[in-house]
Amino acid sequence: MMFSDFSLAILLAIFAAASGVILLCGVRMTGLADRIADRTGLGEALIGGVLLGAATSLSGTVVSVTAALDGRASLAFSNGVGGIAAQTAFLALADLLHRRANLEHAAAELANVFQGALLILLLAIPILAYAGPDVTIFGSHPASYILVIVYITGVIASKRVREQPMWTPVGTTATEDDQPDEDQKDTGGNLPLFAWFGGLMLVMGGAGWTIAQVASELTDRYSLSASLVGALMTAVATSLPELVTTFAAVRRGALQLAVGGIIGGNTFDTLFLTLSDLSYRDGSLYHALTPNDFFWLATGLVLTSILLLGLIVRQRTGPGGIGFESAGVLTVYAGAIAVQAFAM
Question: Count of domains in the chain?
């Protein structure tokens, strides 16, 4: 398929159609993830953070890898870190749906606090790589391998934190516990659930490839900023599953799944950088970037820090029914968009 032969209208239509496919798959995945969490007994926070987070990030992974293979370092990088910022803002929007109390208060789960701290650590590693020497091992910077090691170690530790917590949240009348649905306490096989889940992941991967091709064509044809396209176009489009799954999880009352899905998805998204660096054949991905490319990484760090503070403070209610962290996240994200669009 030669995207260069298509008009702007057709390109935008293809982009919208691929985004719609990602959106629909994300809706279906939420229900499947909730059932898997109940049947396996692993809990909504862990399933949301690992399985659902990784699955809904697949289309974004394909975008970053495809861009890196094409030598587009800025697009690959900004798509990954821009998605982290967008998805954190989605969680703040979901807080508006849960009117009973602040979402971060109601979804009290130590595993989410742990993964939030883990995400901050993972986001700091690319900064060290950028500021450090330009070295590679098998064509990739050592920081990319460190990201994988830290992520895997963090996932294992997160499971241990949930099973043997050394800290527990104080329960209140607004706290929603993670309890399996009664109709999921059956002995039916789990294989069909995982098969459906895997099939939806493949479809989302194909849609992600399409979005990457359209974004690359638009960037070249109209001389757009790769950072802008990556952070505000491809990142938002491929993050639509997180928006839908978060809203759907809140409406289902699966609050830990909603919060865990966003934080866990963001944690998994840092591996975009590893895959992008492995796919980028002109040396270290981090040293092919400009300071502007790190704007959205810094934004993601700020937003995650605000969210983590909210998870710890657990403000029950705030102005408009949302906590200070949701208001802060939305304000910072809107400000970042304005800076990116008008000042950079």
Answer: 1
Question: Is the whole-model pTM more than 0.70?
Answer: yes
Domain-located, residue 162: yes
CA–CA separation, 316 and 278 (whole Å): 44
pLDDT tens string 305-340: 999 998 888 777 665 567 888 899 999 999 999 998
Residue 228 resides in a domain: yes
Token representation of residue 40:
């396996």
Residue 305 contacts residue 97 (beta carbons within 8 Å): no
Question: What kind and span of H or E run contains 335?
Answer: helix 324-342
Expressed as residue numbers, the domain containing 79 is 3-170+192-342
Dist. CA 263–CA 215, nearest whole Å: 26
**Alpha-carbon distances of 294 from 71, 209, 301, 335, rounded to whole Å:** 18, 24, 11, 16
Nearest to 94 by CA among 262, 215, 233: 262
